[in-house]
Structure formats: C-alpha cells, structure tokens
Amino acid sequence: MSEGNTACGGGLRLVLTAAMALPMLIFYAVGTLGPLLVSDLGVPTHWLGWLIMSAFGFAALLSLWAGPLVNRLGTRRALAWLFWATAGAYALLASLPGFAGVVLALAVCGIAQALANPATNLLIAERVAPRDKASVVGLKQSGVQVSALFAGLLLPGLALGLGWRGALATLLVPALLLAVLGPRVAPRTHQAKPMSLALHRPNGRLALLMSVQLCVGIVLSSFVTFLGVFATRQGMSPGLIGGLIAGFGVMGIVARTCLTPLGARMADESWLLLALLLLSGVALWLTSLATPERHWLLWAGALGMGLTAVATNAIAMSMVLRDPGFGSPAPAAGMLSVGFFGGFALGPVLFGQLLRGSLGFADAWLALIGVLLLGGVLSLLLYRARQRHRRAPVVAAKPLLRAVE
Fold first, then answer.
1. At 291, phi and psi to the nearest 5?
2. Using one digit for the tens of pLDDT, what is the confidence trace for 303-325?
3. What's the pLDDT tens digit per position in 11-39?
4. Which of 185, 190, 225, 236 has the smallest CB count inside 10 Å?
5. Is residue 398, in this structure, part of any structural domain at all?
6. DSSP codes of every residue in 345-383
7. CA angle 20, 21, 23 (to 5 degrees)
8. Entry pTM
C-alpha cells in the first residue's frame, strides 16, 4: 500500500491527537482556572471573554489562508510550525506579566489552532486508508476533549502547588518533544502548491456548514469559559469544577469517537447535526436551572454538552474530508475552522456582555439556547442543499446519454 494510503499506526494517531489537544488546552485552562485568573490578574469576570477572543479571533483570521498555507508547506513543516507555536505560547504564558501578557500568549497559540485542522486533515488524506478515515477523524478530533480531561483533572491540583502560570508551564515539555519528533510521521516529500493570498468564496454547502459551526463555536466557548464562574456562584469547590470540565471532556471523547463513524454511515449527516444541536439545548436548559442545592443539574449540563455539541465539529470535519462537494480537504477544513473559531472568538465576549445585564446568567443561557436553535435551522438548510446537489448530475446527464445513443 502506498504512502498516501497506509494503515494508521500508533505514532500517527498520537501525533494527530496531540496536534488537536495541545493548542486547545489553553481554552479549557481558562475555563477551569478562570476564578484564579480573575483573582490574580485583578480583572472583571467578563474579561475572560477577551482572553478567548485573543486566541480564537486570531485563529479565525489566519484560518482564511491556513488551508492554502498547509498545501504549500506540506504536512511535515506544517506540524513543526504548529507544535513550535504551541510551545512558544506556553513559554509566554509562564513569563509575561499582566493581562496583556496573557492576551499576547493566547494570540500566539491562535497560530497553532489555525493550522491544526488543515494539517491533520491533509495528513489523514495522505496516510490513512479510505475505510479508516471517519474513525481516525473522530479520534483526532477527540484530542480536543483529551485536553479538557487533562485541564479538569490535573490543572487545579498543579495550580495549587505551582500557581496557574507554573501549571501551564509544565506543558512546555510535551510541546517541545512533539515539535522535535511529531513531524516525522508526515511524508518526507511534498509537492508544494502555489499559494495565493486571494480569498476564495466557499460554495453554498460549505457556507452553510460553516454557519452551523459558527453557532456551535459561540455556544461551546461561552459554556466552557463561564461554567467555572457559574458553578462557583452555586457554591461548587475548585476541585469539583475541575471534575465538571473533566466529565465534559470524557463525554466529548466518547461522542466524537462513536458518533463520527455513525455519521459516516448515514445518508446525510445533517440530520445527526440537527439532533445533537437540539439535545445540546436541553443540556443548556438543565444547566440554567442549577442552584446551590441542585448541583446535579450542573453535572447533567456538562456531561450532556460533552455528549452532544462537542461531537458536531468532528462530524463536520468528517463531512468535509469525505464529500468533495465541500472542496479539497485542507482549504475546506481551513474555511470550516473560520466559522468554528469565529464562533469561539465571539461567544465569550457576547456572553460576558449579557452577564452585565439585569438578569445575568439567566439571559445569557437563554441566548445560547436560541443560537443552538438557529444552528438547527441551518442544518436543515444544509440537508436541502446537499439533496439538490445529489439530484443535479442525474438531470444534467440525460442529454449526453441521448447523444451517445
């Protein structure tokens, strides 16, 4: 079997998972350690949203050109850029003082976040047999939730002993190791494609899928960023808050590894996206009902969001990788990331502004449920667009068949 169509070994799987996990771990760290950051940096709670925007706003902007850049660099060099940018971000977090220093460090991590999906999708296209692609996409996308599991289980304890900066500095070790060794799983040779800075308009189907991911990004980023603050107000301890994030991560791993192959066997994954978005709305509603006497609702909400909303990004990436109607793998993945990261950048800032209103979290949770309903409508529109595309070739082929006869 050729290098472009090989079985997926353990080393390749590890690098794919780590390439998704390490850049995203900063996001879950903000959610887990949010109360500590607010206290140490001396900033209002809603400023946490600006931290997330600094990373994902930059990532969304870079994602406009990330796909063509990865095609130009090749997967080996793209992976090196990704892991070195991640290591640089953790080094800056450990050394730069003040809120502005954290903003700059997270912006540097945005480089890695922008490269992650195009680089890993292209590597899968090059190295994984077609029959295994959906399951490997689910595995590598679950790396994002591995970072949530790590952040929830280990960062609170490390932060108690080392401080939140010291806890994040420990991640320099795996980041540096992967920067040196990780790119070796990629093909040694690459036929570089010319790169243009011109922006290519996504086709209608990709634009709809990007819009669905924009909605998901708004909801997920807001939920994770402010879950810890909301749980603290309900009297939950830091250790239990870490457990919430860890549970969210575990359910996300299960959902992405199980639901992505399931979606690949469906006639159209758009229906699965719709169902998951509606169930996510139920999970958010349960979260909003939590009180100091009813912490179980926080657990139900966190686990429910992990089982539902988290899986949608892996399913969307699998759709892009398997269906050429969305475009070639790396550029289409980059454009999809524009929508997802754009939502991640906007969500916490908008959510933070709602917290400043008279109803606070009550209004904010309700707004997120509305965003999920909008995503469900867009999923239905995506289904209709894909159905029209599937019927079009049959109609167009008839005149040609008559001519041949």
1. -140, 170
2. 999 999 988 888 888 888 777 77
3. 888 999 999 999 988 888 887 887 788 88
4. 190
5. no
6. HHHHHHHHHHHTSSSTHHHHHHHHHHHHHHHHHHHHHHH
7. 80
8. 0.78
Residues 6+ away with beta carbon under 8 Å from 263: 134, 269, 272, 315, 318, 319
Instruction: Tell whether the model's pLDDT for residue 210 goes beyond 60.
Output: yes
In a domain, 193, yes or no: no
CATH number (domain holding residue 307)? 1.20.1250.20
Torsion angle (degrees, nearest 10) of CA 159, 341, 332, 116: -20
The token pair at 239 is 């250790």
Q: Is residue 405 part of a domain?
A: no
Q: Based on DSSP, count helices (H) and strands (E) in the chain, helices before strands.
A: 15, 0
The C-alpha atoms of residue 32 and residue 155 are separated, in whole angstroms, by: 8
Q: Is the pLDDT of residue 340 over 80?
A: yes
Collapsing DSSP to helix, strand or coil, 263 comes out as helix
Residue 404 located in a structural domain = no
pLDDT in the model for residue 402: 33
- Compute the residue count for the chain: 405
* 106 contact partners, CB below 8 Å, separation of at least 6: 26, 51, 52, 54, 55, 89, 93
Please, how many CA atoms are within 13 Å of residue 363, restricted to the half-sphere of its CB? Answer: 11
Burial class (CB in 10 A: 0-12, 13-18, 19+), 9: exposed
Question: What pLDDT, on the 0 to 100 scale, is given for residue 198?
Answer: 65
Give the pLDDT mean for 379-388.
89
Give me the domain span that covers residue 109: 10-186+201-393
Contact 56, 221 (CB under 8 A): yes
Asked if residue 327 lies in contact with residue 203, where contact means CB atoms within 8 angstroms, the answer is: yes
pLDDT, one tens digit per residue, over 76-130 is 999 999 999 999 999 998 888 888 888 899 899 889 988 988 888 888 888 888 7
Contacts of 377 (CB under 8 A, 6+ apart): none
